[in-house]
Write a structure and sequence with these properties.
By secondary structure, this protein is α+β, with helices and mostly antiparallel strands. It has one domain: VSR Endonuclease (Endonuclease, Chain A, 3-Layer(aba) Sandwich). Helices cover 45% and strands 16% of the residues. A four-stranded mixed sheet has the order 1-2-3-4, sandwiched between helices. A hairpin with a 4-residue loop joins strand 2 and strand 3. Helix 1 crosses helix 3. The N and C termini lie far apart (50 Å). The mean pLDDT is 90.
């Protein structure tokens, strides 16, 4: 497991490159809430948008997750705990006013970036409007 990347995976890098190419600026692997010990893969702090790129195996993708045949009880529990932690993270960030976006690693970087750009742009506009 020590060889499994926890950050800077190929899907994350592809999405970050696409977002940067579009002129969007963001933080990488930051805690959206300083006191909360969870990080987001991509953070748009002023817009309060946290983006997570979830691996199909580690987060139980309904399309691609295949249970392990070796030590299956351990891995089923591990994936279930990951899903529970993901839900807790979503709830904590949403309660603090953050928009949480989750995408699967198999999704197209271009379509993911389209969605992120749309929602970040909308959030920025609405937050500017609220401050007036």
């Amino acid at each position: 497991m020590s060889r499994v990347r926890g950050r800077d995976t190929k899907p994350e890098i592809a999405i970050r490159s696409e977002l940067h190419r579009r002129g969007l600026r963001f933080r990488v692997h930051q805690r959206p809430i300083e006191s909360f010990r969870r990080t987001a893969d991509i953070v748009f702090r002023p817009a309060m948008v946290a983006v997570m790129i979830d691996g199909c195996y580690w987060h139980g993708c309904p399309d691609h997750y295949r249970p392990s045949t070796k030590n299956s009880a351990f891995w089923q529990e591990k994936i279930a705990l990951n899903l529970k932690r993901d839900q807790e993270t979503n709830e904590a960030l949403q309660e603090a006013g953050w928009l949480v976006l989750r995408f699967w690693e198999h999704e197209s970087p271009v379509s993911v970036s389209d969605r992120i750009q749309e929602l970040v742009t909308d959030r920025r506009a609405s937050r500017r409007h609220e401050r007036r």
